[in-house]
Write a structure and sequence with these properties.
- The chain folds into two domains: 212 residues, Hypothetical protein, domain 2 (Endonuclease III, domain 1); 119 residues, Alpha-Beta Complex (Nucleoside Triphosphate Pyrophosphohydrolase).
- It has 15 helices and nine strands.
- It is globular and about 75 Å long.
- Strands 1, 5, 6, 7 and 8 form a five-stranded mixed β-sheet that branches. The protein has a two-stranded antiparallel ribbon with strand order 2-9.
Amino acid sequence: MFSQHLIRWYSINKRDLPWRNTTHPYPIWLSEIILQQTRVEQGMPYYFKFLETFPTIFDLAKADESSILKLWQGLGYYSRARNLHATAKHIAFKLDGKFPETFEGLLKLKGVGHYTASAIGSICFDLPTPVVDGNVFRVLARYFGIDTPINSTQGIKEFRDLAETLIDKSQPATFNQAIMEFGATQCKPQNPYCLHCPFNESCVALQKNKIKDLPVKLKKTKVKQRYFNYLVFKTSSNESILNERTLKGIWQNLYEFPLIETETSINEEHLRSHDQFKNLIGANPFQIVLYNDKDIVHKLSHQHLHTKFWVVEIDTTPQETVPIDSLKTYAVPVLISNFLEEYNF
C-alpha cells in the first residue's frame, strides 16, 4: 500500500530532471556523485558542465586532475571530485568502460557508498536495492514514527531493513526515485506539505504531532574553530604566489595563497612578528594592508575558518611566483575564488 501510494504520487509530481531521461550508468553515476552533499538546484549546472566537457567516461578518465578540480570549484567536498576521477580511470582502463552490474561490484568503486550503489543499481540495472539517504530516513521516520537515531549503527540497519521490505521489486528504479523525490519536495525538513500529503491519514508523526521531532539524530561532532591568514603577494612585476595543498585534509590538491594559521585572530603587529611571515618576506622591503576588516567566516561541515586576507606589496620574493592574470585559471577553494572575484589586482 505504501509503495503504491508513493509511486502514484511520484507519477503526478516528479520533477523533470535531466538524469531521469536515461538509464545509462555514466550520467546517472555522475549525477549521483555531484548531488552528494549538494542541492539539485546547485548541482544541475555542474552536471551539464561535466557532460559537455567530458561526454564519455573515457574523456573524464583521460583528463588531468587539475582540470576536474577547476570544473568542480564551488561544489565543496573536493574528495568527491578526486574519487570521481579515480573511478573513471578504473572503469575506462580496467573495465573497458563498463560499469559493474551488481550491487557488490558497484560498492567497490571509489566514492560509491551503499546509497549511490543502490541508486545506480536500481536505475541502470533494475536491481531491487533500496536507497536510504537523508530524505529517505526522514520519510520513513515520520511515517512509521521511528525515533531510533538515524546516524547510529542500529538506526542505519533498522531503516535499511525497513526499506528492503517496502521497495517495489517489480519497479525498483521508480520506487527509489519516488521516495527520494517525496523527501526532497513533499516531506521536507522544515514546513513539509502535510495538508496535501497522500499519507496524512496514516503518518504516525502527523497523528502524534511529532513532525518536528523526527527523524532523531545524535548530537553532531563539535565544530572546530580555525584562524587563517592568507598573504596575497603583489610584486612589482605583477606576480603573486600560489601554493598547492598536498596534505590530506580539506582542499587537497587545490591552490591557495601562502597561509599562516594561528590559534586566534591576530592583528598586523602579530603577523609581522610571526616567524613564518619573516621567512616568506626575507629582507625585502614591503607594504602590508588588511583587505577585510572583519574576519570572513567560511563554514565547513566540522570546522569554521575565520579568515583574513593580507595584501603584501613587494618588489621581489624568494618564492616561486605566478602571473597575477593567471590566478583565476587555478583550481582553488571557493573561499579563495570569492576573493579573486572581489579584489581588483
